[in-house]
Records
---
Amino acid sequence: MNIIVCAKQVIDVSEMKVDPNTKKPILQGVPQKISDIDKNAMEEAIKIKEKHGGKITVVTVGPSDAKERIKELLAMGADEGILVSHPEKYDYHVISSLLAEAIKKIGEYDIVLCGEASIDMFSGQVGPRVAALLNIPQITYAQSVTAEKDKVTAERNMGDKAVTTESTYPVLITVTKESNEPRLPSLMQILGAANKPINDWTADSLTSGLNPMVDTVELKGISMERKNVIYQNDLDESVSKLVDSLTKEGVLR
Amino acid sequence: MQLELNEQQKMIQKMVKEFAEKEVAPIAAELDKKGEYPTKTLEKMAKLGFLGAIVPTEYGGAGLDTISYATIVEEISRKCASTGVITSVHNSLVCWPIIHYGTEEQKKKYLPILAKGEKIGAFAATEPNAGSDLGAMQTTAKLKSNKYIINGDKTFITSGSEAGIIIVFAVTDKSAGPKGISAFIVESDMKGFKVGSIFDKMGINANLVSELIFEDMEIPKENLLGKEGDGFKIALGALDGGRIGIAAQAVGIAQACLDESIEYSKQRQQFGRPIAKFQAIQWMIADMATSIEAARYLVYNAAYTKDKGEGRFSKEAAMAKLFASETAMDAAIKAVQIHGGYGYTKEYTVERLFRDAKITEIYEGTSEIQRLVISGSLLR
């Protein structure tokens, strides 16, 4: 089974702060990591490889320091990494196109695994776009995946219900955070990752003439204004005032 | 000169941090309360290679450099000081002497078992009347045909009741003083080995520390580590490395004190604002952070000096251990102070950190002994 995992380097959003005056996110010095849900995709890939054998290739579109993050996935169990250089301007369309071109260049594959969305932008677009560009079936929001020899069955998390879907290969699957618990690499695997190959592919060598269709004008933190109302008087009176206020705000109906 | 972990060391640190947050932190308070040994955690740590961190790869270990190893002990100790010291003793005081003084047979027999965590290691040097003055030990080992017969009592032995492999020090030639001490690899199922009482301690309660009793314990002659009379040298060499481990443990405890203090002081409101807005708190936080950073660099420096392999690193290890342990105690005092009355209750982590910090100034050489080692190397 040839498995491709698409992974993104993101900033660790839990360490990100927003400038209280300009409301702009402070991105400088924030540590980078592999988007959490992409690690779920990686874990699913390892499980499939453990069952059927084969090879796992990780593809990332990102800056050169993303190589260190790819090493984390090589330590987890991927066999090879490919880093496609970041174009200066990009959006979901550009990234998806580059991933699709990279996957075509890899050639043989049975499953492409992605996280349902990245933890920074959380658009959830890249997986479906790549499947469309490759013209292969897709199963999104998989909370469990069972790969058999000729077909794959996945349970899709549709919020209030789960839908079981089957597909033949090749197929693209996006997995949810709940799908599994990504393993930690052992010390020996971390040391071993240094000897696994990471190939550099330039964006230009894959395709040309890609232009972003979305223009990011500004990034701004959202502040939640609180009303800070304190009810201090008699308990019964406070409760009825609180209920009144909540009704007025539309919280209680 | 570069004062930064390399990418591989960072990846190891990140992995251990994630492991400690997920597997060590949630049970640390409970293990402390119950005085329960972290057996299951150690099994998980063994799978990730932590128990064979410094063991060469040909014997089933990870063969890590000492800086990487120190980051492991620090990150584990940041969440549970007991699990941290068990890791440190297992690696520095048990695996290391076998790596450096063991015969090929001894290495092949014992290192893979230790690296896989199938047996936990203990280091038995201290006796009721031989603590800082190790040379005063009274446990004896007498050679009878092809066996050594060991008699005596050891005390304050980390993992004593849990260990399967123990490095035991005993006098083989009383007339030779410290040069008459020898080291032995002892298996806990050998006849004549007994665990005495387990100590009811102030802190590091998940680390079971006990007495060990040897009554006519027979061990095969080939379990002598190094040559007869090498024991004192082996103990001091192991303790140099052990001190890097304890210093890393102390940095972990101190860092935990800072982590808790920052979080609490931002949340705790007094006089209408978070106490973090008060200069008294800010200065304590600043002093803690500064000392911790200095302590961590002393640990890295000692680890770096050890790995350079240009002879002894006693002074560097002693400086790291002295400064880091005093930093841990100081940070714990400040952390409890910042938490006020709540910090004095068992509801808050800093209460445990306060109790755990103290031991780092005592074991594997008290602060006074560290000062003796440092001044000794300067005033030679």
---
Amino acid sequence: MNEFLTNMAGVVAAATPVVVAVIGETFSERSGVINLSANGLIVLAAMVGFAAAYTTGMVWVGLLAGFVTGAAAGLLISFSSISLKQSQVAVGFILSLLFRDLAYFLGTPFMVLPGPTVNRFAIPLLKDIPILGPLFFDQNVLVYFSYVLIAMSYYWIFHTRQGLILRGVGEQPISAYSRGIDVNRQRYLYTALGSGLIGLAGPMYSLSIKAGWNGTMTGLDGIGWIVLSITIFGGWNPLRGSFGAYLFVFLQWLGLALQSYWTSVPSQVLQVAPFPLMILTLLFVNIGDTEWVTRMMARLPRGVRGGFYKLFRFLRKPPPASLGVPFERE
Amino acid sequence: MHIQLKNIHKYFGSVHANNDVSLTIEPGQILGLLGENGAGKSTLMKILSGLICKDNGEILINGEEQNLNSPADALRLGIGMLHQDPHDFPSMTIREDLQIWNQRSDRTRTDATDWQALMNIQEDLGFNLDLDGSVGDLTVGERQQLELARLLWLGVELLILDEPTTGISALQQEVLFSALKKLAGQGKTIIFVSHKLEEVKELCSRAVVLRKGCLIGEREAPFDENDLVKLMFGRQITRTRTAHARTRDVCMSVQNLNIEDFRIAIENVNFDLYAGEVIGLAGMEGSGQRQFLQALAGMKQPSSGHIRFGDEDLFGRNCYEYQKRGIFYVPTARMEEGLVPGMTLEEHYILSDCEKKIFIDSRKSHKTTEERIQRFNIKGRSATYSEELSGGNQQRLLLSLLQDPAQLLLLENPTRGLDIESTNWIWSILRERCQAATSIIFSSADLDELTFYADRILVFFSGRISEPLDSAGLDEERLGRMIGGKDWPK
């Protein structure tokens, strides 16, 4: 039991940067801008954050550097997609590759150096709660920050007027505009903030979970793509998104844990399993829209059908209506 | 509010959308802005509400020149516009929708949640909106009421309404008109943009007419209808009803049909459609007409019943099977559901041709394109993109894409937003088809159009469907009551 708890606490810690990045992407996409460069950005920010922390010897400088790297990338994306009206998909893909290779190239001098790491800090009193204490409150500051972030971002998006405006801008920018809201300013702001959070996920790896910078061996490549898909799975909602992030990391851990039991199954299968599982979840979330499902459902008795409709409606969250579309007055 | 527009010019590419328009509007007046589709009415009003910028000219508000660079500027001055498609947020609740505005642009209030004031405005104007409902569930008419109440709530002095009667029920129109009269009485200035003469006649004290971007005339009430028509179109327009084409042969027989989806349940529909007959679907927007038309086109799966067509029961077949038998559906949203933006007219014809060849026979496609453009009187060339056409021409293009021979056409609001000339033209084409024994089922919000063109009418009210009513001798008032949910048999 204790060992399992320790493992689960590890899952919570390992999911933290994914949670933060998913919330960042959620902010950006809610405003209508897709940041497809998340994958490269996390790798680059991890390197920059580590380099900054190593040079100054201060962890917080590294974290700040990661955030600033992300925010700068966000401004670059906003500028190209909002001011220059370029395709967010094309630019995002290229930036993703560019950021990643840039990280490997610039990071060479910092390879395999011992750097500072974030310390564990158990919260007094809370850590003594049975089960929950060791699971959630015997972690480092970054994990606690992520709890606050989840709650705050959810409250901001769904319970404040600013959040309403953010959602409005991503849904019907023309309506927001004709009500006197500066749509492009909102998009710049939230893309910078969101990308900053994605950037923050970088040093969360290099200063804590996968401490150090090991170039291509760091093993961060790929996380960003998962972040993008979890954002969709989460229906652009920080609570659901965070749940998706925890679920994904849990599945990853499960793959590793099951290896010792199912020795006959090749280890690669179990390591790769979380990815198709995520795809299946996405598929299930959106399956209510397909024609053959509606056709099949039409044959079910009324009560059962109603239940399915409710389930599908709960699962399926349509994307912000203007996601990826530059705003024009006319 | 006293408004003066001086020599306004606006270009879209090579199109001169507003050409030297000068206009003065006195406070407390309801001004009618008339013109056919594409005359530049909306453009002029969008300039006045700050949504787009003028290329040249001056705007004076209460005698002072103002720069309207964004809607925020216009709102600060007290200018609010109700757009043709309401600028709201269908995915949100009404309460949420109402809270989205820029506080810096407001002149009177900083409190975003003065719900009592809003409810007072609602009550005053005879609206009845539930603040906790979802915007997406409202009818177009209710969404307009919401926008209207919202603008007044923000303290707007000049109200611009762009084609507000498109897509709303007769009852809602009555409520809207009495609200507008009341507001004018309270000293608000109102600009009413429309292509419908009767409405301007009923509501406005003064009317100006735009044609091809120029302001070509001004009239004071009482108006002479023929005079205004001449101003709008440059000539007289009359509509003719061609002879009855209805036969005794049953084209389609619908029995015990049940249709269900998230929004609405339609139960137990029974009727026979004769070859060459026109059936009109009356009812408020969202009473089930769309689901009904889509079910008859095979695009929506009914849950039970029979759709007999010829010797077959088409229940459960998909829409390709329906199309093979000559049953076609034309949706309301022309650009979104009917045409492909970014494709030229010629490419549309090639697509709709359905030939199973790999290469395009360009000589043949040129020929068909030229021929159809001419036959359907489309103002465009074969290389014109579909989104560049005006609404009326888009509708003509849609109709010209239908394959021959058609047995049954299912048209959803075929003349929504079109001016008299385009409407007449489209109906002359449709009537021609009826002569060739094609049957038509169409939905419309225009009672006049329904009683004039349809042989029989089905009334829809929240999923209920009436018996077919003969349109000859049908009382429009009774029809209006039925649409509003009264006079229904228990």
---
Amino acid sequence: MGEERKGRRNRRTFCGRRAAAPAACLLFLAALAGCGGNGSDETGTGGGPAQEKAAGAGKEASVVVVMPPASEPDAGFDPAYGWGAGEHVHEPLIQSTLTVTKEDLTIGYDLATQMEVSEDGMEWTVTIRDDAYFSDGEPLTAADVAFTYNMLRETSAVSDFTMLKEARAEDEQTVVFEMERPFSIWPYTMAVTGIVPEHAYGPDYGEHPIGSGRYLLCQWDRGQQIILEANPDYYGEAPRMKRVTILFMEEDAAFAAVRAGQADVAYTASGYADQAPAGYGLLACETVDNRGFNLPAVLRTEGENGRPIGNDFTADVRVRRAISLALDRERMIAYVLNGYGSPASSVCDGLPWYREGTEAVFDPQEADRLLTEAGWEPGADGIRVKDGVRAQLEFLYPAGDSDRQALAAETANQLREMGIETSIRGTGWDTAYEEAQAQPLLWGWGSQTPMELYNLYHTRPDTGLALYSPYASETVDRYMDEALASSDLEESYELWQLAQWDGTAGVSAQGDCPWVWLVNVEHLYWVRDGLQVAGQKIHPHGHGWSLISNVDQWAWER
Amino acid sequence: MREKTLALLLLSLGLLLGAAFLGALWEEEAAVVDFTRKNLPPCREFLFGTDWLGRDMLKRTAAGLSLSIRLGLLTAFAGAVIALALGMAAALLGAWADRLVAGLTDLIMGIPHMLLLILISYAAGKGAAGVAAGIALTHWPPLARLLRAEAAQIRTSPYVKISEKLGKSPVWIAREHLLPQLLPQFLTGLVMMFPHAILHEASVTFLGFGLPAETPAIGVILSESMSYLMTGKWWLAVLPGIALVVAVLLFEALGQCLLRLTDPKGAHA
């Protein structure tokens, strides 16, 4: 259908990548296709051309948003297969959640009206509201909540639910979670877990989701667009945006769409930020979408399958601290991100569980002193040498990610000034995880839950080392275990902070420094003049859905 | 006429060797990242401009061409040797060998070139080795077909028949009678295979199945430039693209000259 449409209606020629042509005809689809479904032969799939847009009347309540192709949920809108959860966490929109994260990333209520945890942290009791209905008219009860969580514990391919023993509906409005182990940050898990209906859940749920959230899925053309419509029966404040059309395009096609005035909001990258398409403004959103690299903190050994684990150079804590001190993050931001970023000190900058006072500093003298103290003295050609071994590091970056390639190159340049022989190499995710066990890799993290700290720094029972980069600290493990066991969420924030730095130990740059954080990348969007994008939470990793987490509160200026 | 051809031949050979040499010399400098000079349009200091990492595009292009030429030399030679071996085998080893070679040639020619190239490159682990294997194993059929026909014709000539009657082995006949006569065709075919090899190396790399992203290769340069065209950085694609076309045309000219100089039938044309 797309091709035919292109021939007939789209006279514009778009240059760009393969995706550009189909994406361009899509724009026409987006502008024309409505959800009313008056069966026009134009679109063929049930949507009819909506004249609203042309007439200008519908503009008040609809918005077209462009996201990167990677944001499209492959398995549909099923929370068990990554919708809202997994690597790129965001609010599920179509489904309701028990809790929500507020603008300061503390916990608020959505379906829940009350929440209690037992003294030992082994039982959570949540009362839910009685006025929530699924879009098929059935009421949402505690049984649906229990079903959702039990189902996710069994089947979730992306999220960890092993801490949950069983979810049980006490009555219509009360659900009890029995835990395997205390898990104080359970409300953060609840904030991204969409509740599915027990009576209408099946293998095709992902394509035909039924939820109780702010929006209904009205149309999904795989690889092209998603159209959401406001849920008329939503229990909360009625969404101000009645229709949200989401298109998936590559960076250059997204920019072309903005230049042609065919999208209201489109993601973009810092390389485009100096352009100024008429009628649009640049929105830079603060994020914890950080970039940093790991430094293996153990001596090099052979792993199980003969692959190396650890790195002799970075096993010395003084070397790791020196590397962090040697990096001028402001220069990096100016060079690589054209200024659209902030220096990163941790994986959770600006979140309630971030330890104030652990800001990464740039101090080349101290870096030099530490390296010299560790025995690495500059040799004849300026490269540091210790016992005849040259100071060498190869930085890996995911091939095809130009920002990370540039960050790796700039890191390598800055460390070379410090007397370390550096190089960079692009790699694929099929081998990157294993390679990162022995050498630094440019990663991107950042999530709206403290669990991220646990995932990066806590040791695994099987290896005794952290998962993504070898590191082990009993002190840090203990703080995080205590934080999870805490019965009070507010109190647990403090323990998460102690894990970063307690005055003598921790994972921050002045502590063990097993990861060096470089920058928080600001998420950039072109926004059409007149569109009010409501206040944004600090965005997590993933340049997509987080922007429209509150699309229901957006509005057009009159 | 002969002098003119010879001069043209030497000129193109000189230019190509020069590019290969310069590129190899600049290989390290081509990788230098310097953000203080990023995204510069072509100017006196940087004739081809710089990219988003501040790399000198002239040096990168030269390094890319040099890599292409060296890779092309290897693969074209390997491909031509395969073609020669198959062509002579078809002529000398009897009817079954002839049928086998003809069938194999048709089979390889029947599969879309790019597809087979990607498959082999991917199976051989991508990277330089993958690309080399891919090009060497896909470019021989046209030349093999030509050499086979040529060899079959020589084989029917009286002196070959006499050699056979005298009990000479097929290897002896191949060495003494076939090889000297096939040499001009072989050399020309070898040089003519170059442009294809270079273009296909660039294409398969452009599509992401070839050389790794940090190598200065024309395919990598061109595919990277795609993301920057939209913001008007035309020099990233246009100048390396022209350089590639020029290199291919020079090889073409080189091949034509060589053909004119070595082919006895064309000597008086």
